[in-house]
Amino acid sequence: MIFTRDFHKDPFIVIWELTRACQLKCLHCRAEAQYKRDPRELTFEQGKDLIEQIYEMNNPMLVFTGGDPLMRPDVFDIAEYAVKKGVRVSMTPSATPNVTKEAIEKAKEVGLSRWAFSLDGHNAKIHDHFRGTDGSFDLTMERIRYLHELEIPIQINTVISRYNVEYLNEMAQLIEELDCVLWSVFFLVPTGRGQESDMISPVEHEKVFIWLHDLSKRVKFDIKTTAAQHYRRVFIQQKMREAKGQADEIRYLDALTEQGLTGSIDGLGRAPKGVNDGNGFVFISHIGDVYPSGLLPIKAGNVKEQPLAEIYRESPIFKDLRNPDKYKGKCGVCEFRYVCGGSRSRAYAMTGDYLESEPFCVYIPKSLRQKQK
Question: How far apart are CA 353 and CA 334, in angstroms?
C-alpha cells in the first residue's frame, strides 16, 4: 500500500518502555534494567491516555519494550486497549520464565501483530555471556517453538558486537532454520551498560553492511538494521554498482525503492523513508519521559506534563534532528544525508553532540573528495 507521513508532524514508530524491570543482566542494556518495577511507571489509565495520543498522530506503529514488558501484570490489558483502538502493536519481551505458553496465547488472543526475541549468538556460550544469564539461549529456543505452534510471526533481534561479529554466517543460518520473518540487526551504541570496548570498528561496520546486503539477496527472511543508518548508503551504493549501464538517476531511484525509501510500505512494517532518532522515531520511558530514541538520552519533555504530539513536533531537539542540513562535519555535507544521516545516538555517545558526524562511518562524501583533488 502507499503510505504518506510527514515526519515533521507524525512519527512512523513509537517505542514505549512499559517498565525497566527485567530478570536478565544484559551487557549492553540501554535501560540498565533493574529487578524491581519503578513505582513512578505510567499507570494503566495514563497508558490509555498515551495510546489515544499516539493514535491521533496518524496511528504510527507501537512497540512495547523494557526492561521486560511482561514484568507488568497489566501488559495485555494495555495491548488489548491499543489493538481495539486500531493501533498496530508489537512486543519485545525478554526470554525469561515470564514467557509462558499461556502468555504467548494471550498475546495472540489480544491481537499482537508480532513477537520479537533477542538472539545474540548461535549457541549458548555466546548468547548467554552477552545476556548475562545462563540458560537464556535454551529458554529462547524453547519459546520460539511455542510461537511457531501458535503461528505467531517471529522477529529476531541481534546486537552486533565484538563478541559475535565472527559468527554472523552461523547466526544467519540459525535465523533461517528458525523460520523467522525478519532479522533486526542492531549495532551497539555505547550507552547504558554498553561499552565502547564492546563495539566493532568502523571498517568492520562497513564489512558487515556489505555482507548483510549480499545476504539479503539469498535468504527468505527480511533484514533491517537499527543504529546503522549508513547501511542505507551501502545498500544504495551496492545496487548502483550492480546496475551499471543505466542512467545514474534511474539506478539511484531503483536502489531507493528497493531499500523502501520512496513511499511504499510492506507487510513487515518497514518505513517508507529513512527513519532516524527524532525523525520518524520517538521513545517514551517507563516514567513518561520523551526522547528521540532509547539510545539518545536527551529528554525533550514528559507526557504527564505535555502532549506527546507537542513534544515531538515542537521540541528544539526533535526539530534539529529532523533537519540533516544542521548536521556537522562530513554528515552535514554528505550526499546521502537525507536517506542516511548517520546514527545520531552514536554521534552523541561518542562526541556529546547529537548533530556531529557518525563516528563509525568510513565513507568520505563526494564534496570532500573533490576538495582533496
Answer: 18
pLDDT-derived band at 178 (thresholds 50, 70, 90) equals very high
Residue 218: what residue type?
R
Instruction: For residues 246 and 51, give the distance between their C-alpha atoms in angstroms, rounded to a whole number.
Output: 47
**Would the pLDDT of 248 be above 60?**
no
What angle separates helix 168-177 from helix 202-216, to the nearest 10 degrees?
30
Span 271-318, pLDDT tens digits: 556 799 999 999 999 999 999 999 999 999 999 999 999 999 999 999
Residue range 112-116: average pLDDT? 84
Residue that is written with C-alpha cell 520511558 in the block: 285
Cβ–Cβ < 8 Å for 318, 348: no
Question: Per residue, what are the HEC states of the chain?
Answer: CECCCCCCCCCCEEEEECCCECCCCCCCCCCCCECCCCCCCCCHHHHHHHHHHHHHCCCCEEEEECCCHHHCCCHHHHHHHHHHHCCCEEECCCCCCCCCHHHHHHHHHHCCCEEEEECCCCCHHHHHHHHCCCCHHHHHHHHHHHHHHCCCCEEEEEEECCCCHHHHHHHHHHHHHCCCCEEEEEECCCCCCCCHHHCCCHHHHHHHHHHHHHHHCCCCCEEEEECCCHHHHHHHHHHHHHCCCCCHHHHHHHHHHHCCCCCECCCCCCCCCCCECCECEEEECCCCEEECECCECCCCEECCCCCHHHHHHHCHHHHHHCCHHHCCHHHHHCCCCCCCCCCHHHHHHHHCCCCCCCCCCCCCCHHHHHHHC
Neighbours of 323 (CB within 10 A): 12
**Cβ atoms 300, 292 nearer than 8 A:** yes
Neighbours of 276 (CB within 10 A): 25
Among candidate residues 242, 192, 193, the one with its CA nearest the CA of residue 213: 242
Q: Is the pLDDT of residue 245 over 70?
A: no
How are beta strands 301-302 and 289-291 bridged, if at all?
antiparallel
Specify the pLDDT at position 249: 46
Q: Which three cell numbers stand for residue 83?
A: 489493538
pTM score of the predicted model: 0.90
Tracing cell 513505582 back to the chain, one arrives at: 39
